Here is the input.
Amino acid sequence: MLGLAPRDRALIGLGFLMEAGLLLLLLVSGVRRDSWLLQIFFWLPFAVYLFAIWLVPRTAGQADSRQTSAIILVFAVIFQVTLLFSRAPLSDDIYRYYWDGKVFAHGINPYTYSPDAGHLQSLRDPYWDDVQNRNVHTFYPPLSQIVFAAGYLISPSPLTLRLISVLFSLLAAGVLILILKQLRIDGRYSIAYAWSPLATIEFANSGHIDSLAILLTMLSFLALIRGKRTLSAVALGLGVVAKFYPLLFAVLFIPRWGKKGTLVFAGVIAVSYLPFLGAGSGLLQGFSYFMGRGLFNGSLFPLLSGGLGTVLQRPDALLVSKAMAATIFLGFLAYLVYSYSRAARQDDKDLLLLKYSFWLAGAFLLLSPTVHPWYLTWVLPFLCVFPSAGWITLTGTVILARSVYIAYEAAGVWQEIWWARLAEYGPPFLLMLYGTFGNVRDRLKGRPVEIDGGKSP
Here is the structure.
């Protein structure tokens, strides 16, 4: 490693340690969801990941060279490829992706029929048994359907879709490096996303399509930072029709886009749905079903619904809790929009846009009744700019949410373990509270305020 800067040599050393941790995780646990070995050995690569993030601000000098970026991306490729060798995905979603892609590739509107429809019986194959919610129309938006069909046409296998998810994730890491460079931030902070064990598992093992939405959202940020408003609107519109969650950020983008960009954004979404309108009511049935599903791995929402459950019947408590959570979120959204409109003329308007978008994604996750582990990948890109100790920790402790599958695989019982939820959210929330306390203290003393204890680079 002659000729390498000390910071790059440290990065390479950490990369090899991370790979060793992932290999042990793969070899010992098989990345199987029905074993505690997954939760135990996940902490080996995650510990290296935490140390890498901790080390970046403590090594002198900027690291924006192509050599440093190449090191980060090469190891990201190695990590993702390693977990492509895991046999069984932790999530069953990949089989629904495969099914939707097969239906669409055969010239059938994927929103017209649920998988168990008699019209589709001839398409059933060995993967059919793994398709979940067979009586429910598809939930996934148009761009995702196109990707699923493309994957099926390339090679009819769930592994193809996992490879595509990995490709999107790696491209997103590259875009994040460009964003950091544009913001004059040390490019090594991109490891908060590129080297995340959570992202590696959720994209290489489970193949979640969220990587496409993340890529398009980051492209939208990059375009806006570079002053390309129309391109930014197109990218975020495509992000929405890949996975709905990028819609959260649109209200903050609209003042920067202007009328033209806003119309382009809405037009991209509308045009994407036009080819599928023949499905009629089937276009919305899947969405309404998934919006109405029960609770899983929430944090603040179960506390709210549990409290109301002491005075209301459970269905009423859930309904009122959802209304209250939505009201709180919309109030917070209104505050951020107002605050951003007053501060958008400042020199740091790009950082402020990223910060407020981070807060929106975080608030949505904290108030949501359902938080699957891969939902936490939504905040990972923002942690490259605002490395919050609480949120970084939560991207690790969220692995405990998968403990529910141990009893489910053994006896078909879906029952969350109370202490696993406490261990998952307890340490991150304590770190968030500590950071909030520090912010209040710094504000009183007139010091710069940071996010939840994380130092903005």
